[in-house]
Predict the structure.
Amino acid sequence: INWKAHRAGQEDISEMTAYLAQFFRLGLHMGHEYVKVADEVAHARAYLEICKMRYGDALRFEFEVDQSLLEVKIKKILLQPVIENCIKYGLKKDTDENLIRICVYREEERMVLSVSDNGNGMDEQRLKDVLKRMTSDEYTEETGSFGLHNLYSRLMLAYKGKCMLNVESFPEE
């Protein structure tokens, strides 16, 4: 597809296809469940580049990653589901000031992966509902929050409860 798009002069489609290939290659990671932080960040960046092609100037993103953590192995596909939620629920449709910020840093003995946006935010009740569905033992399609529920479950299994997934939000933040 990339070759055909390139030959047809469709550079935007060629570029998007290259990012999509990178996204899948990094996401599949030869069947390994754990990846280096550098690969997880590259996976998130490929996803954001694809989204940027869709939203154009309405979406900006930035990464701040502690370089000393790049070789640390973590469970794969941790950032992308949260970024997807930022885009799906957080983007403000009437502005081009949407910013998603991804940070990876040390905090005492822990590594923190943080995804934040300056989007719509949630009121207190909506946040409580999201947190309840995220940590529920029983998930159904009707309850929603599949991405966060799945991420939470994968983290608890992988790290045997020695980790935390936290969601914070305020209306219009």
Observations:
- The beta strands are 34-36, 59-65, 73-75, 98-107, 110-117.
- The CA atoms of residues 23 and 113 lie 19 Å apart.
